[in-house]
Amino acid sequence: MSVFLEFTIAKTAFTLGSVLAGSPPMSVELERIVPTGDSAMPFLWVTGDDFDAFERKVRGHEYVDDVIALDRVADSTLYRVIWYETHNDLIRGITEADGTILEGRAQGRWHFRVRFPDHDSLSQFSDFCTDRDLPIEIVRTYTELEDAEGLVQYGLSDEQRDALLLGLRRGYFDTPSRTSLDDLADELEISQQATSDRIRRGTEQILREALLLTEEGEE
């Protein structure tokens, strides 16, 4: 059964993150990873307003042979990054363990959600990180069945779940709050009102499922 791993890692703690870190400040999201022999070729959606500076910075990295713009949509560009040589790093560890990156984006730290074919593959990736001192911070692991049961149990939409999880990770629900609704909206790339609605409706749904239905079942 498939196993999912969500984890974070500092931008400068792995090669791709280091290549993309620093100025100009651009929003980056992994679109897909294509294995190429002993290496892996990342495809990235990059959003911002200084693509020339971004391309110069990436091309100047010691491991990068070239970065090629493949497509442009509004203020975003799809890039392919070509490495000079192989290197033992995070992306390689994922591909060697047959992992599929479902989500990979930079939000202060990089956040990844990866699907592995089974627990053995997940263990292989974990050992890879340990052997190479890659400092990943695990957010959670779960099976496909557990993920489906969680969504069914609380009836959350994907959008509500994403907004609530981001709020928890950024400390929005802490007292005092460690982030603002505006900051969450910027990361989700939606309006402040839409972010507020997702958090409010998601919270209401969880409370209904966890409290009202439990109370009714005890009557």
Automatic annotation (TrEMBL):
Residues 156-207 form the HTH bat-type domain. It holds the Pfam family HTH_10. Keywords: Transcription, Transcription regulation. The keyword Nuclease does not apply. It comes from the Archaea. Residues 3-133 form the Bacterioopsin transcriptional activator GAF and HTH associated domain. This is Putative DNA binding protein. It comes from Halovivax ruber (strain DSM 18193 / JCM 13892 / XH-70).
